[in-house]
Amino acid sequence: AEHLKINNLPYPSTSADLRPGHSYAWQVQAWVGSYKLGVTQVWSFKVVELSKDIVEMITRQDYFELGTQGTRIPVSVIKEVKFKMSEENSRGEVLVNVFDVSGKNLCKKPFRYKNRVGLNYHKVDLQKIRTLKHKEQYILIFTNPDGKVIDKLSIYYLDPYKM
Question: Strands, E, within the chain: which ranges?
Fold first, then answer.
C-alpha cells in the first residue's frame, strides 16, 4: 500500500477467503520514495480447521475479574489468561503462579504485575511455561506480594499449535 502510515493492514474483504489446510506467506518492504530501506524475512502461517471438540471447549476469552466470581468451573483458554482487578487505595502488585492438578508449581518465578489505583487489565502469557500440555487442566493462583491469595482460576490450556 502506497504511503501507508499504520502498522497493520487488514486482509481485504474483497480478496478470496483463506482456506483451511493451505499455507500463506507475507513479507514487508520499506521504501522512501524510490529508495528501498529494507526487507523483512518471509513470515508464514497455515490456516487450520478446528475440530468440533476444540470449538466446544473454547470459551469467550474475556477478562476474568479477580475476587468477584467465587468458585468457578474450569474454563478453556488459548495461549493466555486475561484478568482484571481493582486497586482501591494505592499502587499494588499481584503475583500469578501456575500449578498442575497435583499441586506442583510450574513457574520458575511468578508472573508479576503492577497495579495503579482503579481498574487494571493484565495478561498472563502461558506460552512462557514450556511444560504446559494441550487440553490439560491447570490452576492459576493470584496472590499479593505477602502471599495472601486473592483468587484462584482453574483452566484447560489449549495450545494453538496443536488445534
Answer: 23-26, 29-32, 35-39, 43-46, 64-65, 75-78, 80-87, 92-100, 111-115, 118-125, 136-143, 149-158
Chain mean position to CA 151: 19
Secondary structure of residue 98 in the 3-state scheme: strand
Judging by beta carbons within 10 Å of its beta carbon (0-12, 13-18, 19+), is residue 124 exposed, middle or buried? buried
Task: Provide the grid cell at 75.
Answer: 474454563
Tally Cβ neighbours within 10 Å of residue 122. Answer: 20
Give the pLDDT of the chain (163 residues) as one tens digit per residue.
566 666 667 778 888 888 888 999 988 888 888 899 999 999 998 888 877 766 665 545 578 888 765 556 888 888 899 999 888 866 789 999 999 999 999 999 999 999 998 889 999 999 999 999 999 999 999 999 999 999 999 999 988 888 7
Q: Three-state DSSP class for 126?
A: helix
